[in-house]
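ok here's Lipopolysaccharide biosynthesis protein, seq below lol
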Amino acid sequence: MATLKEKTAKGFLWGAMNNGAMQILNMIFGVVLGRLLSKEDYGLIGMMVIFTSIAAALQDSGFVTALTNRKNATHRDYNSVFWFNIGVSIGLYYLFFLGAPLLSRFYDEPLLTPLFRYYSLCFLAASFSIVPRAMLFKQLRQKELAIISTVSLLVSGVVGVSMAFAGIAYWGLATQSFVYTLMVSAMSWVISGWRPSLEITMQPVREMFGFSSRMLLTNIFQQVNNNIFAVVLGKMYSKSEVGIYNQANKWNTMGTSVITGMVQGVAQPAFVEIGDDRERLCRAFSKMLRFTCIVSFPVCFGLALVAPEFITILITEKWLPSAYLMQTLCIGGAFLPISALYYNMVISRGKSNIYMWNIICQGIVMLSTILAIHFLGGDVTDMVRAYVAVIIIWTAIWHYFVWREIGFGALQAVRDILPFAAMAGMAMALAHKITDGMGNIYMLLVAKIAIAVVIYLAFVWLFSRKDMRECMAFLRKKK
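and the structure came out like this:
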C-alpha cells in the first residue's frame, strides 16, 4: 500500500507529464491553427469563452471539491451528484440556446447566435465526466487522468486542424472543444469503471450544498477573473484585438498550466489526508511551495524572454503584437501556481467561505482596475499590466489566510519564494544581455533558451542545492 508521500510524489510526476504532454500537443495544434486562421476567428471564440466557462462552473456546482473533502464518499454520494449535474446541464443548455441571440446583440455580432448554440454543447457533454473524474481525482489516480486528457486532446486536435484545412475556420475551433469534452467523458467512464444507478436520492446533495454552493459562486468569479479581458475587449474593441489578446493569453496559459495542473492534481487531496496536524501541514506546504517555485519562475519568465521570437517563428509575424502582451502576462503567470497551492490549502481545511470571498474580492478589484484604466485613456497594454499587478498582490492576501489556518509564517514563505524568483529573473536578464544584437531569429531563440537554462541551473546549484538534489532524487526514484 503506497504511503501518502509516495502517492503525492507520484501524483506530482504524472501531473507534470500529463500537463507537459498536453501543452506540447496544444503548441503543435496551436501553431497549425494560428497559421491557418485569422485574428477574427480567434476573436469570435474568445467572446464566448467566459459564458461557457461560467456554465461549466454552474454545471460542476462545487460538488467535485465537496466529494474530495468528504472523508468516506459512497456510491450514493457520487450517484446523487451525477444526476443533479445532468439535470443542471440540460437546463443550462436550454437557457443558453434561447439566450444566444442576446449574446449576439451584446457584441453586435450575428455569427455568435448559431456558433454559441453549438459551442454550448461542450458543457452538456462534459456533465457526464464530472463524477468519474472526481472519483479518479480523489484517489490520486493521476496516471489515468493523464491518459484521458492526452488522448482526448490528440483526437480533438486532429479534428480541429482537419476542419481548419478544409476552410471551416471558427467552426473548427468550436468542434475541437466539443470533441475534446466528448472524448474525456467517454474515457472517464471506461477507466473509472463507475456506473450510475436509478436509485436516486438528493439527500447527499443537500448535505454538501452549503460547502458546494460557496465553491460554485467562487468558481463563477474565478472564471470571470480569468476571462474578464475577453469580455472588456470584445465590448470595447475589435474582434482583431480580442484575437491578439487571446493568442497571448493562450500561450501564457500553456506555460502556467503545466505547473498549476501539477499542484491542483495532488494538493487538496494530500492536505485533506494529512488532517489537522498543523506542523506536518506546514512542512508539506513548504516543500510543495519550493517545488512549485523552482519550476514556475523559470518556465514563465523564460516564456517572457523568448516571446517575440517564439511567436514570430511558430505562428508568423502577423501575431507579433500578441508577443508583447504575452511577456507581461507571463510575469503574472509565474504566481498563478503559487496562488493555486495557497487556495488548495484553504479549501482542504473546509473554508470554502474564505475561498469564495477572496476570489470575489479579487474579481471586483480586477474589473474595477481594468475599467478605470480604460476610462482614464489607458490602452490594452496598460490594462494587462494592472491585471498582472493584481495577481501578484493577491498572492500575499492568500498567504494571510493560510497563515491563519495552519500558522505558516510570512518569513518562511519569503524564504521559499523569493530566491527562485530572483534567480530566474537574473538568469533571464543575463541571457537577454548576452544575446542582445544577434541577428538570426532562430539562433537567437536557441541561444536565449540555452543560456537561460544553464545560468538558472547554476544559480540553483550554488544557492539552493538541497532543493535541486531533492528534485533530482525524486525524478530518479520515479523513473
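fwiw Residues 37-236 form one domain. kinda neat tbh
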